[in-house]
Amino acid sequence: MPTPREERAPLPGSPAESTAARPLVDAAHPSSARVYDYLLGGKDNFATDRTAAARIAEAFPSIRVGAQENRRFLLRGVRYLAAEAGIRQFLDVGTGIPTSPNVHEVAQEVTPGARIAYVDNDPIVLVHARALLVSDPLGQVGYLDADIREPRSIVDSDLVRRILDFDEPIALILSAILHFIPDEQRPAEIVRTFVDALPPGSHVLASHVTAEHEPALRSASAGYRDDGVRTQPRTAREFERLVFTDQALELVRPGVVLVSQWRRDPGEPPAPTPAQVSAYGGLAKLS
Questions:
Q1: Which of 3.40.50.2300, 3.50.50.60, 3.40.50.150, 1.10.10.1400 would CATH assign to domain 26-263+271-286?
Q2: pLDDT in tens, 70-83
């Protein structure tokens, strides 16, 4: 794997400059970040990404609903972390293409001095890093171009260590990323490396695709794999065991549930059916 590229941590409130040559964007093959961007209604995607999304939708027509519900879960989780758990530092791995509101916008609305390190390895995310790296003047935001499958290179990177203080609680965010890591790539070891690096009082927020409520999602995943993007849906039990089995992690109520059911705001529209959502989420505190 290549050495992680860094976006230099910006001065508070200012955009960052790249410390490495920007890679070319591969428009010939679909990207999970760009497909997700398309499903959320974004415009930073190519024909190959839209084709891949269409193939998924053939088998799983409510894929857009699931993507939107996952995004709402992420934002509710970040708001909880900032407003109720008092977290001021966030490590968002697999951040994807900037979609406002972003994690740092939600966190800094509650705590202007919040600090966020974003991590992804998709070239188009790097292209949009300047737009992503706009912080509240009191806070700080940075971007690291790195692969989740190399967790040690992430937690030990100069950029992450400059932005985040590992002596103070950190929220690790693994939103809709772990289903892209099949069992043979040892996702449990990846999660363990991240969690072991966190200080007490930290939190872990994660979400994951499942086929428990809609078996057709397995066919959708197979079609996605045919396009060159591997996915592995997991059950609630498998997801909980993958992320939250550490004895030091205590799940925050309501535990591992469908993302649409996790502390849903009263003002939100009625939750879709479980089959439409087909994604679990959870948040835990590290003692």
A1: 3.40.50.150
A2: 999 999 999 999 99
